[in-house]
Amino acid sequence: MNTVDVGQMSLVLYRNAIAGSNTVGIRETQDMIDFCALNNIRPEIEKIPMTGINEAWPKVVEKKARYRFVIETNR
Fold it and tell me: What is the pTM of this model?
């Protein structure tokens, strides 16, 4: 097992975080995406404009967002 030394204050001062996940690998993720595409399973999202971020964020914090917010950008 590998270890990583991280200074506690460098996390706090710069508002960083360390997180882990035990999700599956790339092959399993691709299998799931292929399954969803084959069965027409789509995510439920709410598109918001960049200017709508300030209104959307409180909903996220208060766990009142109904769907995942997707921010629309103009390229």
Answer: 0.46
